[in-house]
Amino acid sequence: MKTRRWDFVSAHAETFGVQRICRVLRVSRSGYYRGGSPGRRHAKSGRAADDALLVEIREVHTEHKGTYGVRRVHAQLRGFGRTVNRKRIERLMRQHGIEGRHLRRRKRTTVPGRLAPPAADLVQRRFTAARLDEKWCHDITYVQVGGTWSYLVCVIDICSRQVLRLGL
User: Which residue range or ranges hold the HTH-like domain (predicted)?
Assistant: First the structure.
């Protein structure tokens, strides 16, 4: 009885759509896709299919020296003609501890001169002062304003911890 239903759904799926036919016949779409659709009747079991897919994922991952993550592995498998859901690849990679390399570009903000002598440490890491205007300290920070970078400079008196100058 079920086989006839699945055959009916397969025969009329292009005209009416699988969802609508399954709703009218009161059968589950998942049942149709699990075993009733013509392309899936001889499919491997879920675990065997996952194991076979995992082998392919590992091949792609190791071929690219462990740099490929879920998106690139998915694109590579699709390039080989393998249709598989990206979330399934993500689940398998997560379960088996396979992950791509996350490289972040560092922004180099200070480039020291090779020939310039290093600046003298006049404070010598002692950030205390007995009276005002004995020691000052400053910091430079890069702030992105709109699409450009600006420099924020702050000078403080070490004794009072008061901001003496603030510049942008």
Answer: 50-106
Helix axes 46-63, 86-95, angle to 10 degrees: 80
Domain count, the chain: 3
Domain limit, last residue, from 57, 87, 103? 103
- End-to-end Cα, the chain, rounded Å: 79
Residue 66 lies in a domain: yes
Residue span of the structural domain in which 25 resides: 1-42
Residue 11 CA: distances (Å) to CA of 6, 49, 69, 71, 131: 9, 27, 39, 35, 93
Q: Is residue 123 part of a domain?
A: no
Q: Are 50 and 30 within one domain?
A: no
pLDDT tens per residue, the chain (168 residues)?
567 788 888 888 888 888 898 899 888 888 888 776 655 544 445 677 888 899 999 999 999 999 999 999 999 999 988 888 999 999 999 999 999 887 777 777 777 788 988 888 888 888 889 999 999 988 888 888 888 888 889 999 999 999 998 887
Burial 9-35 (b: 16+ CB within 10 A, else e): bbeebeeeebeebbeeeebeeeebbee
